[in-house]
Amino acid sequence: MKNDIIIIGAGAAGLMCAIEAGKRGRSVLLLDHAEKAGQKIRISGGGRCNFTNIHMAPEHYLSGNPHFCKSALACFTPRDFTGLLEKYNIQYHEKEKGQLFCRKSSLDVLRMLQDEAGKAGVEIRLRCKVTGVRKEERFLVITNQGVMESESLVIATGGLSFPDLGATGIGYHIARHFGLRVTPLSPGLAPFECDRNDMKIFGALSGISLPVRVSCRGREFQGEMLFTHHGLSGPAILQVSSYWKPGDILKIDLLPASDALEIFRARHGSRIEMHNLLAELFPRRFARTWCDLHAGSKPICRYSDKELMEMAAQLHNWEILPQGTQGYRKAEVTLGGVDTEELSSKTMEARKAPGLYFVGEVLDVTGQLGGYNLHWAWASGYAAGQYA
Ligand SMILES: Cc1cc2nc3c(=O)[nH]c(=O)nc-3n(C[C@H](O)[C@H](O)[C@H](O)COP(=O)(O)OP(=O)(O)OC[C@H]3O[C@@H](n4cnc5c(N)ncnc54)[C@H](O)[C@@H]3O)c2cc1C
Q1: Number of CB atoms found within 10 A of residue 50's CB
Q2: How many whole angstroms from 271 Cα to the centroid of ligand 1?
Q3: What span, in angstroms and rounded, lies between the C-alpha atoms of 277 and 264?
Q4: Is residue 142 lining ligand 1, measured as CB closer than 6 Å?
Q5: Which are the contacts of 159, defined by CB distance < 8 A and separation ≥ 6?
Q6: pLDDT value at position 1?
Q7: How far is it, in rounded angstroms, from Cα 345 to Cα 333?
Q8: From the CB of residue 165, how many other CB atoms can be counted at a distance below 10 Å?
Q9: Is 171 in the pocket of ligand 1 (CB under 6 A)?
């Protein structure tokens, strides 16, 4: 079977690329080994799909080359995506920090993309597992449904996170087969696991969420932190996890909007027990545990000013040494990927292998939390779709 383009991976990047290439009149075959297309779009944003961010900027991406994403982001903006949603009367809203979500369901986005793909004449073939690729005169794609041929080949196979949803390493394998470098891979936007001792404490606090400021390696994120049975999660923690390296300590400000010492000193004359005072600032379960760990509890008037200073400092600068992240099983994305130095930032085509393109998460471009990863998938897919 001969096609102008084969795209491997019917996720966000593959669908967008297929639509754009199809609109140019190219015959496009979109392959995926899953039962359904766009499984990650479906579960994204807790089923509401945080599809983009109005504060789109290259600074929100991690990559060996921070300039690489600029061209694609400039050619496909958040407004381009919302324009498409509006054409389909899909309602969306800004949740916080510029994050745009569907009002109803991520399935609205998925149906829209499938509809657009249908209109562009794209053939989507599911349950089709790609096991290898060769280049002769054309690209030969080896699958469980036979060998397929195309003039151009787009790799949109995503990263390693959430293997239950169909993630495989085939994209990296194909890159290496064509002599392209792949930068080291690791889980990004992932919850942390803590050691046995911390785990006991965090387990007891499991389910509690606090607004914090967390920092690591000079990066700082403000948002919710969630205690889990395994350790720490929540948006602020996921954000910082993409910058964390084994052995790094997390510094957590548990009262980012207030001055703990000022609060303590203002109440120093009273007989309120420390755990009751802290319960005015935090959930009671947390206040109790914090006192057991760090301060004991007695009437505040019986603490010396030095003790209050130490406690305040601890609340603003709590240090945690995570054992690791919870890995690809729980990571939203994969850090690292096909080295951007190997590709044209305008077209996503491999310099060493004309006709071969890489789009989406398989590349060494990883967004922060907040709609940046899906937007990278749309923008890079759109770019390659103009040229493949
Ligand atoms: C739980 C969760 C929630 C998320 N929420 C958000 C969010 O709200 N906003 C946001 O911006 N990002 C979110 N992300 C990240 C975002 O979903 C991904 O970055 C994005 O979907 C990547 O798109 P992609 O097209 O590059 O890859 P994918 O969507 O992973 O698509 C790759 C496709 O390739 C197919 N494939 C793999 N191997 C083979 C093979 N050998 N043969 C055939 N097919 C193959 C897979 O089945 C898959 O369909 C979330 C991720 C997760 C895990």
Answers
A1: 22
A2: 55
A3: 8
A4: no
A5: 167, 185, 333, 334, 337, 361, 362
A6: 59
A7: 21
A8: 13
A9: no
The percent of residues in the chain predicted with pLDDT above 70, rounded, is 99
CA distances, 109 to each of 84, 113, 290 (Å): 10, 6, 44
Q: How far is the CA of 292 from the centre of ligand 1 (A)?
A: 43
For residues 26 and 5, what is the distance between their CA atoms, to the nearest angstrom? Answer: 7
Give distance in angstroms: CA of 10 to centre of ligand 1: 9
Record the tokens describing residue 174, joined without a space.
Answer: 């194909």
CA–centroid distance, 158 to ligand 1, in Å, is: 5
Q: How many CA atoms lie within 13 A of 34 on its CB side?
A: 19
Q: Is the CB of 183 under 6 A from ligand 1?
A: no
Q: Decide: 143 in ligand 1 pocket, CB within 6 A.
A: no
Query: What span, in angstroms and rounded, lies between the C-alpha atoms of 153 and 5?
Result: 6
Q: Is 21 in the pocket of ligand 1 (CB under 6 A)?
A: no
Q: Is the dihedral of CA 34, 35, 36, 39 positive or negative?
A: negative
Q: What is the mean pLDDT of residues 127-139?
A: 97
Tell me which of 36, 40, 129 to substitute to probe ligand 1's pocket, judged by most ligand atoms within 8 Å of the beta carbon.
40
Three-state DSSP at 339 gives coil
**168: closest CA among 8, 339, 365?**
8
53 lines ligand 1 (CB under 6 A): no
Q: How far is the CA of 94 from the centre of ligand 1 (A)?
A: 22
Instruction: Name the percent of the chain lying above pLDDT 90.
Output: 93
* Domains of the chain with CATH codes: 2-186+331-385 (3.50.50.60), 192-325 (2.40.30.10)
Answer for the pair 51, 379: CB distance below 8 angstroms, yes or no.
Answer: no
Of 318, 323, 80, 106, which Cα lies nearest the Cα of 194? 323
Q: Which residue has the higher pLDDT, 148 or 201?
A: 148
The encoded tokens of residue 323 equal 């054992």
Best substitution site from 185, 332, 369, 380 to test ligand 1's pocket, by max atoms within 8 Å of Cβ? 332
Higher-scoring residue by pLDDT: 164, 353:
353
How is residue 214 written in tokens? 């967390």
Neighbour-count burial of 129, counting CB atoms closer than 10 A to its CB (0-12 exposed, 13-18 middle, 19+ buried): middle
